[in-house]
Amino acid sequence: SSSSSSFICDLPERESMPYDVCIVGAGPAGLAAAIRIKQLREDVSVCVLEKGAEVGSHSISGNVFDPRAMNELLPDWKNLSVDGLECPVKQQVTKDVTYFLTDGGSYWVPTPPTMKNKGKAYVISLSRLTGWLGQYAETNLGVDIFPGFAASEVLYHEDGSVRGVATADMGIAKDGSMKDTFTRGIELEAKCTLFGEGCRGSLSESLKAKYKLQEKAGASVQTYGLGIKEVWSVPESKHNPGEVWHTAGYPFDSSTYGGGFLYHMEDQTVALGTVVGLDYTNPYLSPYKEFQRFKLHPKVKGLLEGGQCLQYGARTLVEGGWQSLPFAGLRGGALIGCSAGTLNAARIKGVHTAMKSGMIAAEVAMEKLSGAEVQDEDEGTEPIDMSDFDERLRKSWVGEELYEARNFRPGFAYGLYPGMAHAAIDAFIFRGKAPWTFRHSKADNESIGRAEDYSPIEYPSPDGEITFDLPTSLYRSGTNHDHDQVVHLKLRDAEVPSGVNLALYDGPEQRYCPAGVYEYVEDEKTDERKLQINAQNCLHCKACDIKDPTQNICWTVPEGGGGPSYTLM
Questions:
Q1: Which helix (H) or strand (E) holds 220?
Q2: What is the pTM of this model?
Q3: Half-sphere exposure (Cβ direction) of 278: Cα atoms closer than 13 Å
Q4: SS3 322
Q5: Where are the alpha helices (DSSP H) in 267-346?
Q6: 230-254: per-residue pLDDT in tens?
Q7: How many CA atoms lie within 13 A of 480 on its CB side?
Q8: How far is CA 569 from the centre of its chain?
Q9: Cβ atoms 91, 242 nearer than 8 A
Q10: 451-486 pLDDT, tens digit each
Q11: Residue 101 and residue 297 in contact, taking contact as beta carbons nearer than 8 Å
Q12: Element (H, E) at 73
């Protein structure tokens, strides 16, 4: 393991565990894949690795849930229970509202067909749903799920095909020395390894680079958003179960792609948040503070007053859609869900497409395995070729959805108003069948402007009732990492933060990170400002890996079990 290279000679061999299928990430894609495999073939051995302390700990999404994939995977889901726990998909959408917000006002705008959820979709917590799906897979189907184990390395056969993954070594101190608690990582060898790490997954990105999967598909660069979310309990008099708002305009300016959402869940709870496109140009923009400002809009503040914030979280979203899909099938594995870029930006939905992608991968894998024997203790792990998965994914309803939505996100490249006009024409007239396809022209990190061309943004101070400082929000996320471990946010060049980021962009990482991980502090000896990385705050959102101007920050997995502890997100 690279994390302990200074002791590489002294390390014991890693223990190896063989499986037919190994799945990285217990999100909707990975769990749907595990369930579908066991439905097709009970005798196949399947394991799921999850870096969160529990299944659901790192699952976060809006979320208005389209049950299409769920209906296919578990047709009787409304009547299923696991250990007495019913499926946590309860609150149907009762009303769709779309607003254009100005500094103090709001205007009703027609809801596009892609955003009509009433009577069809549900308002849910993704952390609860993945928790339940994990229990179902484990209890009812015998899937081996290992929470608290972070896959840190892809293993390869000599011919370059995927052999499996290894988990990170545990118990290495910040200085690289072995602690008393040191334990070696484990190698999980499989005929098929499915990578369902979510948006900007670290192993998925290494596979894309190694196999040039973006180029192989003739794809545009990927583009991303950063979602920031809170869950509140609100007074009963203000609660309208199933009501769904989407907003454009305030708090973002007309050159920044972004919007807000507010969903009335069950039990007097409301989920709300903002999403900002990470192709924004102003280096002084703070996504966290823009979200706090969103809550001060009279329409939102009026609903939250008298309520209580229960949980906070953040996560990047993959928004490139059809044009940015990498080639997703590999010899020995596949990319599934948001690791493959299956989110539908026009619908702001990715859970149903992630689940379906996992199900398709499961079906392809089981067809390939049908002629092969299942894992035997003494037998090698001959990889199965998953190349067919790419075409199957594109020809499925996931591909159809993404193709129809393909022009929505790149249509905003020229600003809010041209983007809204194009989105309306595309949605109401062409209905996704326009005779053109826009491309994504440049990566998000290349879009940031220099500090000298912008003025710092004045944000209101937190009031402690509706808006909060970052330490308060981080406390509500439950995020935690062992302080004495190797920093998992790697700098490729230690001179770049001061020499480039601070000098040219006034240190944008201290603003785009929604967890306060990056902080410039004065060096007492030299009076120069140096970058300090507070890795223990990390929410695993991946914004730094995407937005750092020179791609100098590399997000890697920390020790398993670290990170946020979401239960309502």
A1: none
A2: 0.95
A3: 35
A4: helix
A5: 287-294, 298-304
A6: 999 999 999 999 999 999 999 999 9
A7: 10
A8: 12
A9: yes
A10: 999 999 999 999 999 999 999 999 999 999 999 999
A11: yes
A12: helix 68-73
